[in-house]
Amino acid sequence: MRTVLLSKADEVYLEKCAQEHSFSYGIIVGHQADLTKSIVVHLARNNEEDADLEDLNDVNFTIRDVNSQALASQWLSASKMCPGSFDVIGIFISSTLSEVADENSDEFKNAKKLFSDVYDLLLQSNSSFGVYTTDMAQTEYVFLAYSLADKRLLCKNFTYGNGGTFTKMDHRFVEKPFEWIPLECNYDLDDVIPIIDPARRINIEEQFQNIILTIRKYLIASEVFLQNEIVEDTIDLQTYIKKKKQSDDKLKTSSSTNSTASGSSTATGPASGLHLLSSDDGSNGNGNVIRASIVMPVKCQLNSPANIKISEFNGTLRMSGMIFSRIYCNSRNTIADVKRFVRDDVLRSLITRIQVYCDGLTDPHVSNEAVYISEPPRRVFFSIPADGASPSTSTIQFSEYLFRGEAPTVAVSQAKQVLDVEIDPEAIVLDAEGLPDSNFTARFQETDNVDDNRTMSSSMPKRELSRSLYMVGIAVALLVLLASVALHYVMA
């Protein structure tokens, strides 16, 4: 049976929601510690701008009256802001009435329909909902119902399908604050994807979907290194850190002994010495961060030779830049989990940028007669209160995406509306990726210049041609210089 772990701060928040409004509802952001345990990371009451707060203070307000569309919208928005190791894992209800926490009441029967309606909306409104992860998609969710009347919490496991099913789920309040271990990774993008669509005007959103699927395939086939080393998937993160600390201590002792014997102060050791790096920005709470790196295989090896084929295409879509990833793991997570979380965070960040960018397009179609260059938003980070702590001492950071010229107040507004937290604009980390962090470039083959004798067409400029033009430019400059010198002597 699955178990949900909550902090005392979560209980205080549920009480607060019921006290301020007779009926409140929202989302649960959580972390999968292992196959049987989920940790509640953050509870966020729904703050939909068009919500009628007076209705929520009505004692007759029930689960049947909950706006499923508002919940689904909040769910999707929060999913984009979560690091890859966290996700929206369910829904909570907080009320002054005891019926919400009674599974034999009519009120509870409406909860299953609410959850099913929300999930249906998620599937309908977001084509990328099923590809947010590089592994298996989430199939089980958490439903929490808190009654202020008798201080009782009801916890159920929800499984989608056939109208939805509630099963037993245990829950425990943990006194000790949860420990989070930060990991960071820089993922460099430099990929060229063919545009097959022969139409004169293509849908750029559809081409971006091809990018998502291609990068997802690459990430699944990739290997994740921790501190420049391949680590066995089966061990947990706590064991890995312990072993690395012991290894570092031995290296330090050996280096100290060698230095004393030789009179040198230079420490010796392998070039890839494995150690925890100190965080530059001090935003990770415990001051340490593990560096991860994603190593890609040779891409042509992802397909067997029998599946490799030569085909014609009308243009190319290139994505170049860097995605900065920052995730938080539990010490009991296996290394396999850690690697999956890193991959998921990169994929989620890419999908979110594309979605945010496409949402701002007035016309998703572009002409195939020009080079189309665009700049997606960059990723910024902000802290949220953890276990009742203030944002400045939090060990957890979520992210938002800002276009060039957008003020940090955009992230402040989103954090309040989606996550129900107040953040200081000055505390937002804006320089994790810089400007610009990546570009989308579409190049199209001009139909008038297509060589029918070629098996494959590409609109990417040839390196030899670029070098030739460069040499011609130098030669012309030299001729102009010589001519001016000769003219000077003639005139003299």
TrEMBL record:
Stretches the record annotates as Disordered: 248-278
Keyword tags: Membrane, Transmembrane, Transmembrane helix
GO cellular component, one term: endomembrane system
Ranges of Low complexity composition bias in the record: 253-278
Entry's transmembrane regions: 469-491
Entry annotated with the keyword Manganese: no
GO biological process terms on file: intracellular protein localization
InterPro entries per the UniProt record, alphabetical: ODR-4-like
UniProt entry tagged with the keyword Transmembrane: yes
Main localization, broad class: membrane
Compartmental location: Membrane
Family the entry assigns: Belongs to the ODR-4 family.
Listed name of the protein: Protein odr-4 homolog
Organism encoding this protein: Drosophila albomicans
Upper classification of the organism: Eukaryota, Metazoa, Ecdysozoa, Arthropoda, Hexapoda
